[in-house]
Amino acid sequence: MFEELTWQLITGQVVSLIGLGLCIAGFSSKRDDRLLVLLISANVAFAVHFLFFASWTAAALTGLVIVRIILARHYPGNHSVMWLMLALSGLGAALTWQSYVDFFPLLAMVLGTTGMFLLRGIPLRIMLGAAALAWMMNNILIGSIGGTLTEGIIFITNLITIVRIARAQRKGLLPSHQD
To answer: Does the predicted TM-score (pTM) go above 0.90?
Structure first.
């Protein structure tokens, strides 16, 4: 098994662990704006990670995730911009599609895009948790140990943060709808 590890795959694993740290910091935050800023940095690492794994659709869509995060911060609730991102995602997937595995990054992109443009607080994190499961499946199928670990931890961190937000809302420490 270890004889199959190349410098490319090892580097891809290391880069995914950098993304892991950034994602945990983001998803641990109760503030949506901090979450989105840290996700931009993490997704740069993940785009590079997917390039090392020759997972072209995942790399292309992760690049679009970065654009989506920026646009979602500036145009929250804007259906036209959301649909533009979804169309670009479909085009990116069509141009780079290699196999059925590429369905999972596309699904993750659709879930994340819908969540980032239309939702805040707990609903946003539920949608991002579902996207993390789709990314996890992609990482399992391409053999990315670091990426799989990252998405599993993101999913669990999201669940914990959902509970923290709900408790804070019940105590009146956070509004039920955050900006």
So the answer is: no
